[in-house]
Amino acid sequence: MTQTQLIATQKTLSELQSQHSSSGDREGFNEKDPFGLEDADLKNRPVPDRLTAKADQWNKNGSTAEIIDGARPNWVSLEALHQLESIQLCRSYHGTPLQMMEYQKQLEKEIASGVVVETNNIIILNPTFIVSRSDGKLRKILDCRAINSII
Fold first, then answer.
1. Which of 81, 120, 141, 145 is the most exposed place for a label (fewest CB within 10 A)?
2. pTM for this one?
3. What average pLDDT does this structure show over 106-125?
C-alpha cells in the first residue's frame, strides 16, 4: 500500500467514525447494560422474565426468536447427538435429609418461576446436585459436562 493510499484509507476511516458517532444509532446505549436489563422494576424478577420483558431490545440485533423460544444447541454432528443420547443414565439424587429438603425446595421454586418445566420427553439428561457455598448455604448445580464435551 502506498503512502497516498494509506492517507486516503485513514481519512475514510475517520469520516466513517465521525458519521457513526454523530448518527443516532447509539442513542440511549449504555456500555454496561446494552439491553437495559438492569431496570429497577426488573431486578427482583427471574432471568427469563427479564429477558422477555425486553424483547423489543433483542429485536434490534435479531435475537428475539432465541429469547422467546430458547437457545438451541449447535451440534457438531448428528453422531455427537446420538452419542450423548446413548450414555444417558438416570440416577436419583442422594444426600443428607437436609440436602434433600433444600434440593426439593429449590426445585419447586424453579418450577414455579418457569425456569424448570416438567416433561416426560427427556432428550438430554443433565444431573443436578447440591453443594455447600462458602457462606454455609446450599446451592443447586446443573452438571452439563457430558453435553459440553460433545457440542
1. 120
2. 0.38
3. 80
